[in-house]
Amino acid sequence: MPGFVGRAAEMKLLDRCLAEVRERTARTVLIGGDAGIGKTRLLGRFAATAHESGAHVLTAACEEHFGDPMPYGPLLEILEVFGRDFGEDDEAYRRLVDFFDRRDDHLSGPQQVFVHVRRMLQHVEAPLVLIIEDLHWADPSTLDLVRHLAQCRPEQRRLLLVCSYRSGGLARTEPLWQLLAGANFTRRVERAELEPFTLTELEELLDTGSGPPRPALVERCLTWSEGNPFYAEQLIAAGALDHPENLLLPADLQSVLLARLSGLGDDALRVLRVAAVAGRATSRRLLRRVSGLEAYGLGAAVQECFDRQMLVTGRDEETYRFGHALLREAVYRTTVRDIRVDLHTAMARALADDPSLSLTEGSAAAEMAGHWYQAGRRPEALAAAVRAGEQAMRTYAFTSAAVQFERALQLWPRVAEPERTAGLSHVRLLADAAESARWSGDTGRAMARIEAAVAEAGEERPDLLERQANYLWETGSRREAGRVYREAAGMLDGRPASAVKARVLAAIALARLHAGRYADGKEVADAAMRVAVEAGARAEEGRARNVAGLARGMLGQVTDGVELLRAAITLARQENHIEDLLRAYANLGLILENAGDLREAADAAMAGLAEARRLDIGATTQAMILANNAGVALIMLGEWDEAERILTEGLLDRPPAESVYPRLTLAELRTARGSFDRARELLASIEGLELNGDPRFLGPLHTIRALVALGRGDLPEAQREVARGVAALRDGENSLERLRLCAVGLRCAADQAVTDRAAAMRFGDELAREGFEARPPESTPETDQLLLVCRAERQRLRGAGTAVLWGQVADGWTGLRRPYEAAYARWRQAAAGGGREALLAAHREAVRLGAGPLVADVARLGRRFGIDLADRPYGLTEAELETLRLLCQGLDAAGIARTRRVTPRTAQTQIHRLYQKMGVHTQAQAMAKARADGVFT
Ligand SMILES: Nc1ncnc2c1ncn2[C@@H]1O[C@H](COP(=O)(O)OP(=O)(O)OP(=O)(O)O)[C@@H](O)[C@H]1O
Ligand SMILES: [Mg+2]
């Protein structure tokens, strides 16, 4: 059985009531909730903790009955357990047993029974928890007993009565309903209604110990179980969710669900069938129109469904929803095909006549398409699917659009004159299907569809090629993408300016930028801008500005770059071009990060991510890139937990080729945290992927590999990795990445110098020559800072490291808001004799970040220097801090000496020293300062 999930509030309520019972005040708690929601599990858990805390627990349950329930069923169970637990001597117990055994009538009525039960329970020494489960099946006498126990004076009784019941589907006529409606009763009890599990709770429920379940599976499980753990477990156990399109309703579950329909009137059943055909929700008016029931009969039938909570109100009074998604499924499947077809046809017709019958504005097309399809009317279904897909694209509902286009493709060959019926060509349909698939995160299908479109088109279609190249790019096939872009460019060469031409040029420019050829890329991007303006293509102009902005940013012309990118954002928004919108945000974040404006960079990336989520396209490549950029900036800012969250979310279930960057970034984080194995796993997952020489990939890749080797103590491997990185970046223009790599390389060399000075010097010189002296970078705050780091490491390598220089490095990083790098430098500063404060600062920051390896390095140094790293205020020692505490309590030196069992002289000295450290002169000042700084709060 999986561990216990959630239910914190309910446990707290029960614990509180038990505490009150301990104080001799009786309490009653009712736990309501749907079948399978977890009432029994909750009470079992509570019973166990109550028992552990010394309470006595008695549990009984009402049984499901067919015909008349047995009077006092649970009480008999309680008596049995009571006799076993406490022996048979209790007077009240014996009279009750006699009464039930022999039907003696010396208990003259129910009141007498209740009084004896109460007495019997009162004789128990410990606080008593009495659990009665499944009150919805209780006989009237048991309900009376519950009422009696709850309403009786609570003082001096140590009884906690807890009852569970199914609240869903309770009819007004049932006795329990009447009990719950009683004002006198409800005033004396506390009630809790168990809510369905959230997504996170379901995830926990489904984690059977072999790692968390796939997010997509959890999502699907949430959809079908609606957070009900019983349904969730059943669906998973039966493998019912393994096929995304098709739910395999397990037979057991289906009969459980259908059992709920027994006793429903014919009209009510008809209403349910119509509603099931309509879908998970339906409009009141559509139900009325299609059900064929007279107004009065309909009203009564709907009421019946409502009373039993088969139907509930949807988001407003005008919509009905099934009480549970699985109930709809079960009803639908058990409706005979003829009736289903008739109902679907009637619904499609009704919607065609009056689209306002549909659920939401604009959804009529999709609903109609669905009904025609289910009714088996292919031509109507084809036309409706295409319309519905187009409409869904306009409203960014890409997943729905993809469903419709795929359905249209499937219908196409089975309709007589498909092109005329659908109102578009097959090639166009393929391209639309590709685009919708791509935006709903299914790149594989996008690729297949666009390839089919290109092949089928036969003529020169640079627009299709441009799409294809785009998808190739996104799936990580950079080289192939470049080839297709050039092919498209070849077709366009010599043709007049056009939107497609601008788009293709922009793509080529971008490819150059990714290959680290910034000046070149800028030139092509500017050309794209001119073509777009000439062709009057606003969206393409936005795209070109986007790339041109990125190029400038990479060339260090940040202000110009930011301006272009902001313009690109505005244009993309005006043109409703979400791809460009997200790209512009991503690029803006990137160049701000390169310029050292980390906070703004993180904000820009997260703003883009928020847009993506708002449009419900959080699972696309674009969103993933944004998540990565946000993660990178947050790591630098030292907000590691947030970074980790965003990065792991961004990864979802994506294949490595489509999630190279976040994998790399996450590996960097794990390395800094000392999880070398997990970092290596991530690196291995992207081993050998083709990225066409992108320095923004190669730089971090080699840097992180080197850091992993360094962390594992393999210096030679770390150096080899740095050398490989330097070689890979040699021809590019990205000096930032090269410098980052050099700094790590020099660090390795300096470490090596301890054992092999000569070799280390050689490596250091080589790095200097190749890495940064040969081609000084354009100056940015980060490159300046990195050069300083390289200098400091090189001095360390020569054995001439100075605390002053490392202090400068640390200050520089702090100024750039890079706490981790600053902490590293502080550690070096301390190691070079820079003092206790530096080491404490390094320790504080490394601990806050959770940077395990650095914490260990700092601690080692602390031990060597005999420095206590505990973070006490004003650098006080343990003894001084204690003395300060006593001072703040108003004790004088003599008092402190007595309390601390030291000589008055020692106390005096300590007081004197702590005044010095605090920079005060009197006890009053010390007290005031400690209070102002919140030292003892
Ligand atoms: N908090 C929980 N943590 C883990 N599993 C749970 C939790 N709540 C319920 N489950 C699982 O869900 C299933 C149904 O729970 P349970 O039997 O408690 O439901 P119930 O509300 O008592 O249903 P019924 O009304 O049919 O008695 C069980 O397999 C149980 O283990
Ligand atoms: Mg139960």
UniProtKB/TrEMBL annotation:
Domain HTH luxR-type: 869-934
Source superkingdom: Bacteria
Gene Ontology biological-process entries: regulation of DNA-templated transcription
SUPFAM superfamilies per record: C-terminal effector domain of the bipartite response regulators, P-loop containing nucleoside triphosphate hydrolases, TPR-like
Single GO molecular function: DNA binding
Protein name: Putative ATPase
Keyword ATP-binding: yes
The keyword Hydrolase belongs to this UniProt entry's keyword annotation: no
Pfam families hit by this protein: AAA_16, GerE
